[in-house]
DNA sequence: GTTGAGCGTT
C-alpha cells in the first residue's frame, strides 16, 4: 500500500503518469501520497533514486487511475508547497521503455492496430522527435550532472572496454578495482608509457656506475674515508657536542 | 551536511 516504488510497475497500461518536479531530496512517496491521493485514486508512486547513493533525484512519478483525476491533481498540486519547496506537477512525457505516452497515459501498441497501417514511419518520427527534444534540452541548459555523468560515463566505459578488451578485461576487475578507477587510470598509461623510457636508462645506469667502475682510482680512497667516517661533520658535531655536553655541568 | 534542471523502477 504505502510501499510505492518498491516493486515493479503494477499496471501502467491503464494508468496516467504524472511527473512531479522540484520535490525535495528527502521527500518520499509516502509523503507525496496523501497530497495526490486527495484528488484521485493513486495507483502507484515512484521516485527515481540514484543507484549508487540511493538518494532521491528530486522528482517523482505519480500514477493515477483516471485522467480527470490526474488532470485535477495537476491543476491543484502544481505549485503546491511541499516540505518547504514548491513542486511542479505535469503529465509525464516520456516512458521508461520508449512507450508512447499521450497526456500522461501510456498507450500500448495493440496487435491488431499495428497489423494495419504503416506504423513504421509514424513511430520513427515520434521517436526522433522525442530524442531530439531531450537532447536539445540537455545540451543547452545545463552540463552533465553527477547522475548523468555517471550514466554517460558508464556507457562510455562499456564501449571503450569493448574495444579495449583484447587480452583480459577481467584482469583489472579481478584485482578488485571498480570502473571508477578507469578514469584515474586514464592518465596512468600516459605516464607509464613515458616512464619506462626514462626510468629504464636511469635504473640501468644507476647501478652500473656504482658497480661497474672498478674501485681502483678514487673509489677506494673515498670508500675508505667514507667507510670509516661517512659523516665526519655529524660525528664531529656530535662528538664535540657530546664532549661539550659531557664536560658541561 | 551540500545540489535544483529534469522524465521512471522489475
From TrEMBL:
In this chain, composition skew of type Polar residues spans 231-249
Per its UniProt entry, which superkingdom is the organism in? Eukaryota
Q: Where are the annotated segments for Disordered?
A: 153-249
Q: Does the keyword RNA-binding apply?
A: yes
Q: Which CDD domains match?
A: RRM_SRSF2_SRSF8 (cd12311)
Q: Which SMART domains match?
A: RRM (SM00360)
**Main location per UniProt?**
nucleus
Cellular component (GO) terms are: nucleus
Gene Ontology molecular function, alphabetical: RNA binding
Which biological process annotations from GO are given for this protein? Answer: mRNA processing; RNA splicing
Residues of the RRM domain: 16-94
Report biased composition (Basic and acidic residues) as residue ranges: 218-228
State where composition is biased (Low complexity): 205-217
| Annotated localization | Nucleus
Please indicate if the UniProt record lists RNA-binding as a keyword.
yes
Q: Which UniProt keywords apply?
A: mRNA processing, mRNA splicing, Nucleus, RNA-binding
Q: Which PANTHER family match?
A: GLYCINE-RICH RNA-BINDING PROTEIN RZ1A, SC35-LIKE SPLICING FACTOR
Q: State the protein's name.
A: RRM domain-containing protein
Provenance organism: Carya illinoinensis
